[in-house]
Amino acid sequence: MLNLVGRLTPWDFCGMIQWLTDNADSRNVQDVYRQFNQIQRQWRAGWTVYHALCQESIFLRIGGKTQMRDDLKYAIFLGGDGNMRLRRNNKGGGEASDPSLFGDGAFYAENDKYKDFYDTYLSKAKDITCRGFRAGDAARSGAFFKGGTVDLPKGERFVNFDFALVQVLLWIMQMGLHRIIISYDIACKYHINFMERIAERSWPLMTPTEQSLFSALIVVWLVPKFHLAAHIEGCADKFSFNWTKNVGRTCGELVESNWAALGMMATSIREMGFGHRRDTINDAMCDWNWRKATGESIRVLKAFRIGQAMCARKCETLEALEEAMGIDLVEKLTKESVESNGSQYRPRVIESPSRMAILKKLQEEEAVEGQSSIRNSAHLQIPHSVRLSRSVGINMGIDIEMRQQMLHIRKMHMVTDGQKAELLESRRKMSRSLDMWFQSLNDFMPSDAIQELRCTEGDPENAFLGLPSDFPCESQRRLGLEALAIVEQQLRIGQAHDALKKLRTALGLKNSGRATSQVQKWKEVYQRSYKALEHLRGNTQIPETNSTWSQLKELSDSDCIMLSEWMDDHRTWGKRGEMAEAKAASGGKGKRELAWFWKLEVTFNDESSPNEIRGAVDRWTTEVIRIEWLHAKASHARWDEEVRLLGAEGERIGKTFRYLENIWKGRQGLEEWNNNVTRGAAAFAHRQMLLFRNLAEIAEGHYEELRKESYPDNSF
Questions:
Q1: C-alpha angle 160-166-171 in degrees, rounded to nearest 5
Q2: Which of 12, 17, 52, 413 is most deeply packed, by most CB within 10 A?
Q3: Which residues neighbour 443 within 8 Å (Cβ) at sequence distance 6 or greater?
Q4: The whole model's pTM is what?
């Protein structure tokens, strides 16, 4: 407890005992550090305790085989991750002089087999001086699995996770489960050749019979929710916990909380020998699992209460949404969602020109121009630079301008000292970016224009950047900025469409503080880009061929209405009837239409009839509602699954402790009849029996509270 919770090292503990024995002259007290280290290692190895909740097979045997086809309650969740902090320096005599007292009976996989397997794939691994270690745990409870931990001699690779994962899978396959959910940071790539790797002829991790049994299982590969944000949209379609059925509200990130606890021992572990380090990590895992086991029932009860409240709230949201949509539309979307994959949760819209796409096109044109044109043409007012092109330079200025806008927004909400300190740090970074910007102007901007730049003093968010749109139209012609103005004009069109896309997304969110701030942010970005475009246009007309520019209009505050408010408005007028709506419309009121930027994906011409226009707008409106409905339905389904899963887990905890109580009760009886066993062993078995009986009573009490608070329609 002092070592794992209080973070007290054996050296400090022995020193404390010496000072308590003789505080005047502790040097005369015998140094017991070496003896204490040996005793504590032996004590650790003899008191290995595994997390009871990982022994899911116990409750599954009690429940019987008939119920094990339930994909939600009788599935097991695995999570894997690597920890590079718990490495060991290359010191000591290695494994031969400092073997692990736990051996292969704890959380580490069999060491000899792992070395042979690793040697087959990479290089010699006699005494593993690990750069880190990888562990597999239960993705819902966060407990470590037996045999699911290996060292990483040469960093984190698929081969390391293969060996650790297979050890856990072989144990799980003995339970009779048919569904396994595996959470891994890069599961999208890792799972592709998994079967080929474990069936490698040089060292197969599974026998042909085991491979056949594993192939018959339902294995679901998913990416933890926090890590999924860094993946591409295609990964979110296939590997998201949010869109996968029968996983509840599992996040897949619980292994990270394990590292937060074990990482505190990193400075001590790196100086240990081979066996001492392994024993310390095994002991820490044992302690972590035991604390998880003893606190799991109250955790499940608290999570169940939160889950029921959230499930009821999501149900109300979904019912209100479906009431506004109508029965026919709900039935149509339900049928479509059953037949579609995870990509249905993303909007099916025509891609508008983005700033990055336009930048790429401009760079390609500049590359061709640089090869075909004469470098020093006097009639071209386009300076050439091998370091920074026109498009990249203007794009850099637009990025800095957006950061200036964000600083202005943040400055209005600075309240605490911490927020003010963050603002000062952001200003420091902005000043550094401005220095780089002004130094790079010589690469792409005419010298006459650089001479016209105004020096601004004060905060960096108010600095004058000197983009072409910052100069009057007549000055652009005089300073030779016409070519740069055309580049900025194209990039501004992409920026405006990007901002509108983000704005539509923010308006489709729930009406919250975060959604409101996002709306304000992207509204200001669009208004700045639209203002710059109008300035660049001057008195000229927008070319008829440039439809992406002509679509853009001035954005008002009344246009930025939250989608939820718009739907409430439609539902209200739908109840009042068409007559009331027509009467209100004649007075300038009535049902509000979607703003113009919701209809940008629709193309009209002069011959389009009013019915065609109305139909196109209705289709776009339906697309917005479809996304809102799918997200609401998925959110409600995951919370409903979470409530049912927590109910099953709450019952399983008490029955597992009862099973362990009976195990120790049987051992107590056997040892009392065996004259060769001391009375101390029988007493220990009796003590363990009482321990698990007490834990079972606590867990059963929490489960009884859970059942009383559950809704009548909840069946576990």
A1: 140
A2: 52
A3: 383, 385, 387, 388, 393
A4: 0.65
8-state DSSP, 379: S
* Tokens standing for residue 546: 């440039």
Q: Which residues contact 637 (CB under 8 A, 6 or more apart)?
A: 245
Cβ neighbourhood burial of 70 (10 Å; 0-12, 13-18, 19+): middle
Please choose, from the candidates 140, 151, 206, 144, the residue with its C-alpha nearest in 3D space to the C-alpha of residue 173.
206
Helices (H), 326-341: 327-339
389 and 368 Cβ atoms separated by less than 8 Å:
no
- Averaged pLDDT, 87-97: 77
Q: Are 668 and 689 within 8 A, CB to CB?
A: yes
Task: Of 519, 532, 464, give the one whose Cα is nearest residue 492.
Answer: 532
C-beta of residue 36 within 8 angstroms of C-beta of residue 3: no
- Those residues with Cβ within 8 angstroms of residue 647's Cβ, 6 or more apart along the chain or in another chain: 304, 706, 707, 710, 714, 716
Dihedrals φ, ψ of 135, to 5°? -135, 150
Helix (H), strand (E) at residue 159 = helix 158-173
Provide, for the chain, the percentages of residues in helix, strand and coil under a 3-state DSSP scheme, each rounded to the nearest 5: 65, 5, 35
* Sign, CA torsion 390/391/392/398: positive
Asked whether residue 409 carries a pLDDT value surpassing 90, the answer given is no
d(CA 356, CA 395): 9
What are the backbone angles phi and psi of residue 133, rounded to the nearest 5°? Answer: -150, 155
For 192, phi then psi, to 5°, come to -60, -50
Exposed, middle or buried: residue 304 (CB in 10 Å: 0-12, 13-18, 19+)? buried
The residues pairing with 150 across neighbouring beta strands, listed in sequence order, are 134
Report the distance separating Cα 175 and Cα 407, nearest Å: 57
Structure tokens at 203: 């060292």
203 in Cβ contact with 116 (< 8 Å) = yes
Predicted confidence (pLDDT) at residue 642 exceeds the cutoff of 90 = yes
The predicted-structure confidence for 554-609, as pLDDT tens digits, reads as follows 888 888 877 667 767 766 766 676 667 667 766 666 666 667 777 665 444 444 45
- Nearest to 350, CA basis, from 504, 463, 164, 119: 504
In which element (H, E) is residue 179 found? strand 179-183
Residue 155: DSSP 8-state: B
Q: Token pair of 631, please?
A: 């997200």
Q: Specify the higher pLDDT residue, 401 or 341.
A: 401
Q: Identify the pLDDT of residue 465.
A: 86
d(CA 501, CA 497): 6
Write the burial class of residue 208 (CB in 10 Å: 0-12 exposed, 13-18 middle, 19+ buried): exposed
Q: What is the largest CA-CA distance in the chain?
A: 109
pLDDT of residue 57: 39
Q: How many residues are present in the chain?
A: 716
Of the pLDDT bands very low, low, confident and very high (cuts 50, 70, 90), residue 47 is low
What's the pLDDT at 231? 83
Amino acid, single-letter form, for residue 663: I
Q: What is residue 700's predicted lDDT score, i.e. its pLDDT?
A: 94
